[in-house]
Write a structure and sequence with these properties.
The protein is α/β, with parallel strands linked by helices and about 475 residues long. About 40% of the residues lie in helices and about 15% in strands. The chain has a 14-stranded parallel sheet with strand order 1-2-3-4-5-6-7-8-9-10-11-12-14-16. Helix 15 links the parallel strand 10 and strand 11. The relative contact order is 0.04. The model has no long low-confidence stretch (mean pLDDT about 80).
Length: about 475
């Protein structure tokens, strides 16, 4: 009989598999020790398994939580004329609620909604049941979780926030909070490391205190700051000055701010900007520690500010290891600037239209590991040329390819392109095994004349997995 691994070793291994839910789920079936170890990790953030296209996942999770509800909650539901049959005959094997370290109120309600549809309740009953059931599940979670780490309470009702305030003893170790600006955060920890605020017309005066009272804030995400008054805006900006030297990651979405505001965060390692009104404030800004730059923009307005971005790369590009620019924008001068000013890039997401520019990036960015390519857009570089250049010019560190498919999946072409690419990659004298990710939009379609299907693609990939050419393949929708 094989020797049993110690529990500590199993925990380390399963922690490594945290994002691989299929493997972790398989571990539940090995033996009792594997099951007890894996189930705690699976349920740590069980809400991340929500998938709108797979309602049975929501059904399974909510049914399990309903089976865990205490007698008091069952009586409350029954007293209000609500009875919901749960297909679980035996008592739950574990106290699953106690394993949760993350609460997402929105995901709880959405998953309950999926469950109600499966139970085919009448619409008027379903509305009452959704509210009551979500409150009882939330109450149970707050009573069972000894140390909550992440709380997401956007679009929460007053009743939900009241339950949170009553459970303040469980929120003392909270490390990450995502909320709207109308929350009353008196009960929130002062040791948050990550804070996300979506500003709305309703504004709680305690939000300013929530920001300024934090002792160890590292990550800040702000959305829709433009919705608040000028006075409130100044108060928020003032409260953020305390964290000017401690923040390492800043995300701004629809926020009309000044260059002085961005520039005061001297130790930023990651900067995420959305919309052109923020982008213009990068002019001459300098960040000594900046490693990651992500820009999502208005596709019609970035052109006017491209020189500002190029100048920003000239000042800060040498330290960048990751660069992302979204929404189908192409500007050759920007890609040339990446090749010239960003020699240490490891990950790049940009749109490239010509062969010579791609060669220049691959030659100059010698540490490049991952590149993302929009495969099915006719406006960009021909896919056959792209794969040929990638196989012949990528440097020794390169291993990751992400292919984006948004509307059209030319699967016959893809099969031939990949086949030729794998053969060329196999012939490299110095190589790393490939990691290949397909990102497919829900609106994509395969041309009717296609003779190849996705199954053939997977068979091709499996062949080269066995040969060691491909290490990992993932399909994302």
């Amino acid at each position: 009989m094989p020797c049993q691994l110690p529990a500590d070793c199993l925990i380390d291994i399963f922690e490594y598999l945290y994002d691989d839910k299929n493997t972790l789920y398989s571990c539940l079936l090995v033996n009792s020790l594997y099951c007890e170890t894996a189930v705690r990790i699976l349920w740590r953030n069980v809400w991340k398994f929500y998938n709108n296209n797979k309602p049975y996942i929501s059904l399974s999770i909510i049914n399990t939580l309903i089976a865990c509800l205490p007698k008091e909650s069952e009586e409350i539901l029954h007293k209000n004329g609500i009875n919901i049959a749960v297909p679980i005959q035996k008592p739950p094997l574990f106290n699953y609620a106690s394993f949760c370290k993350v609460i997402s109120i929105y995901k709880i309600e959405v998953m309950i909604q999926h469950t109600l549809k499966k139970h085919k309740k009448q619409s008027n009953t379903s509305a009452d049941l959704k509210i009551l059931l979500s409150q009882e599940i939330l109450k149970m979670l707050l009573n069972q979780i000894t140390s909550l780490k992440v709380l997401k309470c956007n679009n929460s009702r007053y009743e939900d926030l009241y339950l949170l305030s009553e459970a303040k003893i469980h929120l003392s170790n909270l490390a990450k909070l995502r909320c709207d600006s109308d929350i009353c955060p008196k009960f929130i920890s002062h040791n948050l490391q990550s804070l996300t605020i979506n500003f709305r017309n309703l504004f709680s005066k305690w939000i300013r205190d929530l920001i300024s009272s934090q002792n160890n804030l590292k990550i800040l995400k702000i959305a829709n700051l433009q919705y608040i008054s000028n006075y409130e805006y100044k108060e928020i900006i003032l409260s953020l000055t305390k964290h000017s030297l401690t923040l390492t990651r800043l995300t701004l979405k629809n926020c009309k701010i000044t260059k002085q505001f961005i520039a005061m965060f001297k130790n930023l390692q990651e900067l995420n900007l959305d919309q052109n009104d923020t982008f213009y404030q990068l002019r001459n800004a300098y960040f000594l520690q900046l490693k990651i730059l992500k820009i999502t923009y208005n596709r019609y307005s970035l052109k006017d500010g491209i020189e500002i971005l190029i100048n920003f790369l000239k000042i800060n590009g040498n330290n960048l290891t990751e660069f992302y620019i979204y929404r189908y924008y192409h500007e050759k001068s920007l890609n040339l600037a990446l090749a010239k000013y960003c020699p240490n890039l490891k990950i790049i997401y940009t749109y490239i239209r010509d062969e010579e520019t791609l060669k220049l990036i691959l030659n100059n960015c010698q540490y490049l590991e991952i590149i993302e390519f929009c495969y099915d857009s006719r406006d960009w570089l021909d896919s056959k040329i792209f794969f040929k250049v990638l196989a012949n010019y990528s440097q020794k560190y390169f291993y990751g390819l992400i292919l984006d498919f948004y509307s059209r999946l030319p699967i016959d072409e893809l099969y031939q392109d990949l086949k030729e690419f794998f053969i060329n990659w196999q012939g490299r004298t110095s190589q790393r095994s490939l990691s290949l990710i397909f990102v497919i939009s829900e609106t994509y379609y395969i041309t009717k004349s296609a003779k190849i299907n996705m199954k053939d693609i997977k068979l091709l990939i499996d062949k080269y997995k066995k040969l060691g050419i491909i290490k990992k393949f993932e399909l994302k929708r």
